[in-house]
Specification:
2 helices, 5-stranded antiparallel beta sheet, alpha+beta, two-stranded antiparallel sheet, 9 strands, about 40% strand, globular
Length: about 100
């Protein structure tokens, strides 16, 4: 949340803080896991990207935001991935060079 002050010269003072919220459309998380290095989620396109430590990346389509939230908040992201995402969604596989 971002707060800002607006000055109103007619009143001679400052207005109370105005809170504005930005909708997050993409989220990227670095994972502390033996297998998974990073997960990314695009809320608008409903695409989940899973990057593994070995450089393999999977793109999963039509992943509901609630599934991503449950993945992000799970105790074991690897276990959640294996039980709820792997082989459950349409996907593509690609290999990327891990730096």
């Amino acid at each position: 949340m971002v707060s800002c002050w607006a000055h109103n010269p007619e009143v001679g003072g400052s207005s109370p803080p105005v809170a504005t919220m930005r909708k997050v459309s993409k989220e990227v998380l670095l994972i502390d896991s033996k297998a998974i290095k990073q997960i990314s989620y695009d809320r608008e396109k409903r695409i989940l990207l899973v990057l593994f430590q070995n450089g393999t990346m999977y793109s999963y389509w039509k992943v509901h935001v609630r599934t991503f939230q449950r993945l992000r908040n799970s105790y074991s992201i690897g276990k959640f991935y294996n039980r709820n995402i792997k082989n459950k969604y349409s996907h593509t596989k690609q290999t990327v060079k891990v730096i």
